[in-house]
Amino acid sequence: MTPVAVVLQPVASFGRGFAYLFRAPRFLLSHPRLLRFVAIPFTINLLVFSLAVYFGLDLFNHLLEQYLPQGDAWYLAMLYYLAWVVAGLLSTLLIFFSFTVIGNLLAAPFNELLSERIEVLIKGEGGAPFVLRRFVAESGRSMLIELKKQLFFIVGMILLLLINLVPGFGPLVYAVLAPLFTLFFLVIEYLGFVLVRKQVGFGRQQRYVLGRPLLMAGFGCGVFIVLAIPLLQFFCIPLAVSGATLLWCDFPHTEKEG
User: Fold this and answer.
1) For the stretch 50-80, what's the b/e string if a residue is b when 16 or more beta carbons lie within 10 angstroms of its beta carbon?
2) N or C: which end of the chain has fewer CB within 10 A?
């Protein structure tokens, strides 16, 4: 293998992982029946977060009117607009993390169905028909698994924030580990809908992900970028679930990895 090929192979692996999220829209649109598993959680999440942002910004405006000095001075106008810029940035950050937690929790039962149907279409195998009673019975299990994943993320971020408080090396360690942990969680989060269904335990999930670091890092970066863009966040969950399922179908877990 030439030196150029050695360099390009990791880049190609990262790029392939990154592309899976953006392959998902075409796949979903080419199979319109899958959109029913997208529409309901999308509508629920859009309603919940629209109300949260509306009432949050209304409260912020009320606080500004109550505590910010009033007047026509130019510096007061600058202070007012600066406060709104800060509020917008904080809102984007809060929506990113809360959407990662709450949005996925609300959509978990539909995500599992979506992942299952995509796998059936790719492999050409007959899947079990949709039964409302079965869906309701399994929704609790799906949400419980999702809650465990979210707790893992929250506890991990709290530990990293505590490390950040350590003088000297703490901020440097945090700056390196926090993005890596976030990417790792995003990969585990969306691949989990396939791997849990295949009865792959959390330890084996980690080995599956860490055994393909650049491929998974590329996929995680794609998800992270879409989550960070306002409004596109609402499309990210079904796209990430679809992309993760497409990835797994190309790179299935094997017994040797578990």
Assistant:
1) eebeeebeeebeeeeeeeeeeeeeeeeeeee
2) N
User: Widest CA span of the chain, in angstroms?
Assistant: 71
Question: What burial letters (b/e) apply to 92-104, b meaning 16+ CB within 10 Å?
Answer: eeebbeebbbbbb
Q: What is the enclosing helix (H) or strand (E) of 168?
A: none
Residue count of the chain = 258
> How far does the chain reach from its first CA to its final CA, in angstroms?
30
Distance CA 104, CA 154 (A): 14
Q: Where are the domains of the chain?
A: 3-257
- Confidence (pLDDT) at 214: 92
> DSSP states of 75-144 as a string?
HHHHHHHHHHHHHHHHHHHHHHHHIIIIIHHHHHHHHHHHHHHHHHHHHTPPPPPP-HHHHHHHHHHHHH
- pLDDT recorded at residue 94: 66
Q: Check: CB of residue 14 under 8 Å from CB of residue 213.
A: no
**If 0-12 CB within 10 Å is exposed, 13-18 middle and 19+ buried, where does residue 237 land?**
buried
* 49 within 8 A of 106, measured Cβ to Cβ: no
What is the predicted pLDDT for the residue at 3? Answer: 38
Torsion-angle region of 168 (φ positive above 0: left; ψ -120 to 50: alpha; else: beta): left
